[in-house]
């Protein structure tokens, strides 16, 4: 099964997204079609390399193996990859290939956007989370200890190849982490501006069992639905001037939580779900949403095995991190808040108001 989507950045600027369950031989052919007569550097996750290097058979001299974990998305690895590209003699006419999860994709994209002021790159996401989120849309970044994704660019790939066969070897925790980001889309669907209703909230409610069984057709449909929503947003707002901020539902709290725990305790998807619980609870208390929608929302998160965060962290430290968030404006902290069924809106709160949020 194969689905082809298109991200239309401008009238004459777009790139394809291929979603399939085809063989890895076919995937190799697709990659080769973009790399013919070009020098290439492949940045690949260590786990993916250990599992699939024999399937791909890449030249070892063209590979940079990146250790796994958010902490690897740092300036040291950025410089190592740049040095490897220089060693291989890559020019602006050549190409980078990212094979792995969001860390590999974000870091590779950032290298591509800055190496010789811009070089082509391809995304081959191998985790569920990267398939539905970070591989599409052009956000690239590296982290500092003080803040996540604080150094970055907007830079679109030449193509994205999503092959769900990678999910056969994805561990359960990382699979559920991807589901955390997928659930986000259910709450923002009607704010995305997609041309027809997708009923993602209902699809996720009814398809939970098949999703956990990793049924191929169901996974492809789910990924397609999420990407159609993301593409609709990116096509309207490539560089997060306004609408694209809705993709950060649950993320203000999530990024603070990841930062305060140094990216070691929670996966990104887990942190996003904790952020969604937090803001949904607050929205109901403030009467932004009805009780019936509040209950449906909580039940959907719980249906996928998620629970509220049961550990407390310093409110002062959390707020300090939020103030450094790239979405913050002046002395205000930005939250994306549910305001009706599948609809969200942006609100800005002062640090004092955020402190009250944690006390309520």
Describe the structure.
By secondary structure, this protein is of the alpha/beta class. 46% of the residues lie in helices and 20% in strands. The chain has helices spanning 24-35, 46-56, 75-88, 102-114, 128-134, 172-188, 200-206, 208-212, 216-236, 251-260, 268-285, 291-303, 315-323, 351-359, and strands at 2-10, 13-20, 40-45, 63-66, 95-100, 120-125, 139-144, 147-154, 159-163, 333-340, 343-349. Strands 1-2-9-6-5-3-4 form a seven-stranded mixed sheet, sandwiched between helices. A hairpin with a 2-residue loop joins strand 10 (333-340) and strand 11 (343-349). The radius of gyration is 20 Å and the shape is globular.
Task: Provide the descriptors you would attach to this structure in a database record.
360 residues; 7-stranded mixed beta sheet; two-stranded antiparallel ribbon
């Amino acid at each position: 099964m194969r689905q082809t989507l298109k991200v239309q950045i401008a009238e004459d600027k777009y790139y394809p997204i291929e979603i399939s369950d085809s063989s890895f031989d076919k995937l190799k052919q697709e990659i080769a079609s973009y790399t013919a007569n070009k020098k290439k550097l492949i940045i690949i996750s260590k786990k993916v390399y250990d599992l699939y290097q024999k399937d791909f058979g890449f030249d070892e001299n063209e590979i940079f193996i990146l250790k796994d974990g958010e902490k690897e998305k740092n300036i040291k690895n950025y410089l190592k990859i740049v040095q490897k590209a220089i060693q291989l003699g890559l020019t602006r006419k050549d190409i980078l290939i990212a094979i792995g999860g969001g860390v590999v994709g974000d870091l590779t994209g950032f290298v591509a956007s800055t190496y010789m002021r811009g070089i082509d790159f391809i995304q081959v996401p191998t985790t569920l989370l990267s398939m539905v989120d970070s591989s599409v849309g052009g956000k690239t970044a590296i982290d500092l200890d003080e803040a996540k994704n604080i150094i970055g660019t907007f830079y679109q790939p030449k193509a994205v190849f999503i092959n769900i066969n990678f999910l056969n070897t994805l561990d359960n925790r990382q699979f559920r982490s991807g589901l955390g980001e997928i659930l986000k889309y259910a709450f923002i669907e009607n704010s995305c501006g997609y041309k027809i209703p997708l009923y993602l909230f209902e699809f996720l409610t009814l398809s939970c069992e098949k999703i956990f069984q990793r049924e191929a057709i169901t996974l492809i449909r789910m990924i397609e639905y999420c990407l159609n929503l993301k593409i609709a947003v990116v096509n309207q707002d490539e560089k997060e001037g306004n609408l694209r901020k809705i993709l950060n539902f649950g993320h203000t709290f999530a990024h603070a939580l990841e930062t305060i725990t140094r990216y070691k305790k929670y996966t990104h998807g887990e942190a996003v779900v904790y952020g969604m619980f937090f803001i949904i609870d607050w929205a109901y208390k403030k009467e932004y949403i009805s009780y019936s929608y509040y209950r449906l929302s909580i039940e959907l998160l719980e249906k996928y095995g998620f629970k509220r965060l049961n550990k407390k962290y310093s409110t002062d430290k959390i707020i300090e991190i939020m103030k450094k968030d790239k979405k913050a404006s002046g002395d205000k902290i930005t939250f994306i808040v549910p305001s009706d069924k599948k609809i969200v809106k942006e609100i800005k709160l002062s640090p004092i108001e955020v402190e009250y949020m944690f006390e309520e």
